[in-house]
Amino acid sequence: MRYSRGDTIIEVMFSFVVFSLLTVGTYIVMNRGTQIAQRSLEITLVRQQLDAQVSLIRYVKDTNPAQWAELTSSKFLVNNPLDVVSASSDGCPAPGGRVDLATGTNAFFMSVDQKNDTVLPVRVLNTTYSPPSVYANVDLINAKTYGVFAQIVRAEQSSGVNTAKAYDVYVNACWDSVGAAAPLTIGTVTRIYDK
Hints:
Strand content: 25-35%
Helix content: 25-40%
Number of helices: 3
Distance between the termini: 105 Å
Low-confidence stretches: none
Mean pLDDT: 88
Shape: elongated
Order of helices and strands: HHEHEEEEEEEE
Number of strands: 9
């Protein structure tokens, strides 16, 4: 009787184990790559939202002196802007949340009034602010923000004939991203001089 040499059950099982490990490893690497690509896209989109808010604030300063005077009044000015990075360690700031945006922060965002063709600031409240479902953004038409808010701080005020006041505009965003244990935050500070 002749014996034919072939794969034993151990060899077959070992090949399935190796194949399974390779398959799982490939899925893990692909998943991580997708998360990095998604996060990169979110950061790019949020950065554009922040730049748009700064542009709208500059537009108000240049075209609507009455609105700019309101933005630089005690109605919107704050002494110390919110540190979003430390405030978001347990979740993004929100109205009525652990870090309450609606109380004492004078947080706002810029929106567009299509009827009157004007840009106006909208205070952050429960009705105008929601946590973002994908990434932080502002719905300009419906006057609603999803994780984006701004604060204005008087940076300097000189006395004299030809001196200017300076205001620092802090625009922040906070949102939950894929594969991140803590919320992502981005902020920008822009100094605007008032003649």
